Amino acid sequence: MRLLLPPSETKRDGGVDVALDLRALSFGSLTPVRAETTAAVVALAHDPADMMRALKLGPRQAHEVERNRHLLDSPTMPALDRYTGVLFDALDAPTLDAGARAYAADHVVVHSALFGLLGAMDAIPAYRLSHDSRLPGVRMKALWRAPNTAALEAAGGLLLDLRSEAYVELGPVPVHADAAFVRVVSVDGSGRKRALNHFNKRAKGLFTRAVLTAQPQVESIEELIDWAHEAGFSLSLSPEPIGAGVRELELVA
Q1: What is the pLDDT of residues 69-100, one digit of tens each?
Q2: What is any one GO biological process for this UniProt entry (predicted)?
Q3: Can you tell me the distance from the alpha carbon of 36 to that of 137, in angstroms, rounded to the nearest whole number?
Q4: How far is CA 239 from CA 56, 173, 194, in A?
Q5: Which residues have a Cβ under 8 Å from the Cβ of 206 and sit 6 or more positions away?
Q6: Residue 186: per-residue pLDDT
Q7: Measured in whole angstroms, how far is the alpha carbon of residue 68 from the centre of its chain?
């Protein structure tokens, strides 16, 4: 089973003094695309005004330009530790024990706008780039969509997509019985469901942490649903698939 997470705009600083090595990242088929995006980001960062416009940054975010300028020589840390924000704060990866972190290395993928699909323990620097950022000569969707989806297809197995729909556009999951998109919903007093925004990230973080801690032995969506109920989560199949036929799961927050 793989859990596919979105990234976060916010990142931790620091890490170890080992520079980014694109060839060492998971999903090696993405290396050529990663080289193209990182080169474009570093080049643009040498014109701070242009980069701030491209990334829609305000004056208080000027430090993000420096992060991008030093992308190739700044400290690195595991992707799961690098990202912060609501989902990653709920996941709280730095407090996971060694067994849970080892499980995450094999079962968690983070989808970065800059690097594409990343293994949880892939070493990356702090950076700033979003799914809707504009880089000179680079169209993010056209660049990433096919390579990301091909990498997911090649990986195979049970796949749970916890990304936002914006990142799904940069690499939809393959359509098969063991892949599903997770939508976080709330249920009101009348039983009606509605999708959540802010709180959906926290629910996804808590669910991911529970999986990493319990390490359930599941091989299908149905087995995952059974485990989730035992673990105290309300997870169920939506009656209608999304998009081009991908199954949808509803996680009640």
Answers
A1: 999 999 999 999 999 999 999 999 999 999 99
A2: response to hydroperoxide
A3: 10
A4: 38, 19, 15
A5: 90, 91
A6: 85
A7: 19
pLDDT in tens, 135-181: 888 889 999 999 999 999 999 899 999 999 999 999 999 888 899 99
What does the alpha-carbon distance between residue 101 and residue 103 come to, in Å, rounded to a whole number?
5
Nearest to 118 by CA among 155, 87, 84: 155
Instruction: Output the CA–CA distances (angstroms, integers) from residue 60 to 64, 113, 129, 132, 135, in the order listed.
Output: 9, 22, 16, 20, 21
Alpha carbon distance 56, 72 (integer Å): 22
What 8-state DSSP symbol labels residue 174? P
Per-state percent for the chain, helix, strand, coil, to nearest 5: 45, 20, 40
| Distance in angstroms (rounded) separating the CA atoms of residues 6 and 167 | 7
Could you give the CA distance from residue 144 to residue 191 in angstroms, rounded to a whole number?
Answer: 39
Tokens matching residue 25: 């990242």
Q: Tell me which residue of 111, 83, 208 sits closest to 169, measured CA to CA.
A: 111
